[in-house]
Amino acid sequence: MKVVWTNTAIEHLQSIHDYIAQNSKVYANRAIEKLLGRSQQIAEFPYSGRTVSEFQDQSIREVISRPYRIIYRIKANQIDVLAVVHSSQQF
User: Which residues of the chain register pLDDT less than 50?
Assistant: First the structure.
């Protein structure tokens, strides 16, 4: 299934990169590559993520890529990544 990163999720990735890059651009790039790499798991196994406790909707799920939560919605023809948030933040 096709995975589409929403503008909001892309902005989250950029913020994560910018924050980590203050100390190391190498680690910032690695962190983003790791987060983007989870797209493959989501595409192959959309229901492998757990449901998001903040919502009562089976189509909204998350996978953890410590310390981040990648939150996505399963649709008929694609998966939309909605947000990437630090696990200590409220969604």
Answer: none
Spatial separation of the C-alpha atoms in residues 64 and 33, rounded to whole Å: 14
Sequence-ordered list of residues with C-beta below 8 angstroms from that of 79, at least 6 positions apart, any chain: 1, 2, 3, 4, 42, 43, 46, 72, 73
Domains of the chain from N-terminus onward: 2-86 (3.30.2310.20)
Cβ–Cβ < 8 Å for 78, 66: no
User: What separation in angstroms does the CA of 4 have from each of 41, 50, 72, 78, 86?
Assistant: 13, 19, 9, 7, 20
- Residue 16 identity (one-letter amino acid): I
- Cβ neighbours for 88, distance < 8 A, ≥ 6 positions apart: 67
Q: What is the pTM of this model?
A: 0.91
